[in-house]
Structures are given as C-alpha cells and as structure tokens.
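Title: Request for sanity check on Bifunctional metallophosphatase/5'-nucleotidase prediction

Description:
We are preparing a figure and want to confirm that the structure record we downloaded matches what your pipeline produces today. Could someone re-run it with the sequence below and paste the raw structure tokens into this thread? We only need the token string, no images.
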Amino acid sequence: MRNRQGRLVVGLAGLLVAGLLVAGLVSADPADERYTLTLFHTNDLHGRTDAYPQLVTTLDKARDRYGDGLLLDAGDIFSGTLYFTEFHGQDAVEFMNLMGYDAFVPGNHEFDLGDPEEGHLALAAFFEAAEFPIVAANMDFSASPEFEALLGESLVEAPEGGTIHDGIVVEHQGERIGIFGLTTQDTPNISSPGDVSFSDYREVAEAMVERFEAEGIDKIIALTHLGYDSDPSVGNDLLLAQQVEGIDIIIGGHSHTRLDPPTLVTENQRGETMAPTVIGQAGEYGEYLGVMEVIFDGDGMVVDVSGELLAVENSDPDPQAAELLAPYTAAIESLRDETVGVTLTETLANPRHGDGDERSVRANETALGNLIADGQLAAARRVEADTLMALQNGGGIREPLPAGDVTVGDLITVQPFGNRLTLVELSGAELIETFEIALADAPGENGGFLHVSDGTRLTYDSREAPGERVVTLEVEVDGSLDAIAPDQRYIVATNNFTAAGGDSHHVLGAAYDDGRGTIVGTTDWEMLRDHLLELDEVSHVPQGRIVDLATEDDGE
C-alpha cells in the first residue's frame, strides 16, 4: 500500500470545497512531477433522452476549454420518461456512444425491468449495444444467463465496449488510471435485480484498491451509484471516502446532488488526517455536465483540484444529435398525446411532501393511490374472484395525474416502470406484518408505504414503535367490516416489484419465493386507464381508508 498519510493540512472538519483551500494540499517539493487528470461526468438522466443534443454541445465546448479527458456516467439512465417506456434505453445508448463514454456503472433503476421469468433482457441489450465498458465491482451478474456473453475479466486493461468488469485500467496522457464501479446495496429493496446480487460496498472497494495498487496503479477512481450523503446504513460517497484509503476520486450518482465545485474529504471516520479524496456529482436529468481537473504529484497524491458544473441549457443542440433525436421524439409524442377518454376536473396527488401539498403518496392515503389500488383490485378479480384487497406502493407513483383530458403519456408518467399485476397468497399474520413494514417510517415518507383498495380499512398509531403500529386491519364483507384473522389465508393483489420484496417488503418477497405469488399480466398504467374508464365520477379526496390515530388525536 502507498504511504499516503501525514502530508496534508486538515481543514473544515475534513471536508474542503475545491479551490477554497487548495494551497494547503500542495506538496512542498517543487521537484514533484505533476499530472493533471481531466474528467467529464454525468449521472441520473432517468430517460431524459431529449437532453442529449445540448449535452453533446456542452461536452464539445468543455473539451475545447479543458482539453481531452475521461467521460464517465454514474448510473440511472433507465426509467422516468416516455422515451424509456418506449425504447428501454436503446435510444440513450446511441447518444452515449456518440459522446464517447469511457465507463458506466449501472444504477438501481437499470434493474427496474427485471422479470422473474425473462430476467433483464432490456439491460442486457443496453450493455450489448454500448461501445463503452460497464464497471460493477459489487455486482454479480453470473447467475443471470442473459449476461453470460457480456461477462469480461474481473480486472482488465484496454477494455472493450459492452463488457462487464469489476474494474478497468485506461490510459490517459501516458498515465494508467484505475476505475471500478459500486452500486447501492439497497438495490434489491428498491428495484428488481432478480438473480443479480450485490455485495458490501466497503469490502469491495478496499479489495479493488489493493488490486490496483498491486498492479502499480496509483490513480484510482470509484464510479459509484451510492448517493453523496444517502442512508448510511447502506453506504454513501462521503462514507466511502472516509472509510477506504487509496481512492483518489469518486464520481457519484443516486442522490441527484449538485456538487459545484467538487468536495474534498481529508479526514477519515476517526478524525485522522488522510490523503484527500475528491467527490463529484452533477445533479440530475442531464441538466449539467460535471467537469473536474485533478492534479497529482509524483507519488500519486492529489495535490490540487478544481471543477464546475456546466449548465446544459446554455448550449444549443448539436445538429447531428438533434437529427438522431427526431424520430425518437416523434414516436413518443404520438404515444404521449393519445387520449384515453377521461377528463379530470382537478389534479390528483403529490408524489412527495414539499410540493405545496401536505399529503404524500409515500406517507398518506391519497386519491390517486386509491384509484390505482382500486384498478388493481378490479383487474385481479377478473382473474381471481376471491382476491381480498390490492396494495400499491407509494414509491411506484412518480408524478401527479394532471387535470384535463387524460392521455397515455400522463398515465405512463405516473407509473413509468411497467410493473405487472401479481397475486400473492398470505396468512393474515403475514398481511399484518406487511403493513407494519409499510408504516415503519410513519409519519415520514417511505416508498414502501402501501395504499389500499376500496373496502379495506387500516387504523394505525405512528406514535408506537415500528412493528407495533397496526391497531386494526379490516375488510368489508357483505356490508360489514371484518377483522383480518391471523391464521386465515388471503389472496392479495399488488405489482410484481412489491410482490417480489421491493421497498423492503420481505414478507411479500418470502411468500413469492415460496411459490405463493403469480404474475397474471396487466401493466400498471393500463389498469389505471381501464378503471378510470369504468367510473362515472372520479373522487379527488381521500376516503378514510388509512387512518393514523396520532393525527386524529392532534385534531388534524
């Protein structure tokens, strides 16, 4: 291991903003040979294919100004728009190839289309089309046959496009640069990775640094989809910098953070001086191109860094990229504008707190959550008449449904993941435990919060400890409410993501793995469309299906 201790001035509690205290990082030895590594980076585009023409121009201008550099993407190309719904990333990869990316780490949303029977055909096709390598050190694709032909060597120099590696070595201006990829360990809870498994980010990072250094590589980049300061229980970029000595640069995603300029971490978790690690992240949706210039001394130590986020809106679209985009846009506009025959007098729901609405689909019963659950129940009962109730996770409701004539585009924007209706057989005890999981963060937001279909009444108390919050769970039968019996068996409907254990619903996931879950077809947005068409009138207010006694006692 390199001796990288004891040469730095510690400041600002170990977190320095690049350019503000650079002098304290510079080696006193003028004989050191300096090397400047230029990086351009993006993250979390989430299906915004229409951002690429301006992004291409922004990159060209940045290369003219800063010179040649490595171009990296930190994940979540998939999910979020009609572009993705229609083209499943094949549009995005065409633009990424045009821009000349040097490495890509999959984000959690790259696994959203995972199918229990077919696996990840769309993701495998995205990888296969890529002219850049995929770095995935804490991901194991070997149990998914669709990736078999794409698996490359664990650590490789001069990697080929479309291959999956733990780490790669690329040459830049005569220097060998090591790059490895990490994705949040929480992916099995928030997406549908199926047979793709995830290991501990810290252990993997330490092992990768050791392997690079054994190869004589002293400039190491972690390309991550962990989040800048996300949930520490599953890791984030700040913790990675503080915990793992030897990572020089972290290019991150997942938390959609704007780091302008980059951040320097100069203290470990014990408050001891450590070699600096630079962290960069470029916001979201292709709105910015991150630029970073990192100067190393002759020992491979970071001694200076500068960087900025370039606003893409300040660039004109690149003509070639605009021409490539045109047929994709024409296709999705045709889909987007197709009306379904329903008109809403008011906008339905706010996906999160803080948007002018005190109710959130991740924390409260909402009219939109009710509609979605009701549509699932109606579809389920056409398949299985004895279906008791339907459950919709709040995290699967991504946008409000706007007032006016409802279009296919509106519905897909609300539910962009294309999840399918699934029936699960549960005991009453398992069903109650499922709601305990859903209410664990109440009254705070949680993507696993469950909306319920008409006829279900859930009463809980958010003042009680997690796991002890459900007061009553009842279902209307023949005009009266009956309590759920712990030892009785019930059939419930939900989407395949939640049924397979998404959003920490491990009880549902265990039942599904036990053979008690069956995907029965219909896509989520189609069920909502069909249900809206059946209604004479759409309710725009909650109906008291889910009640928190703490809120009632507060007089709200």
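Thanks, this matches our download. The first helix runs from residue 52 to 66.
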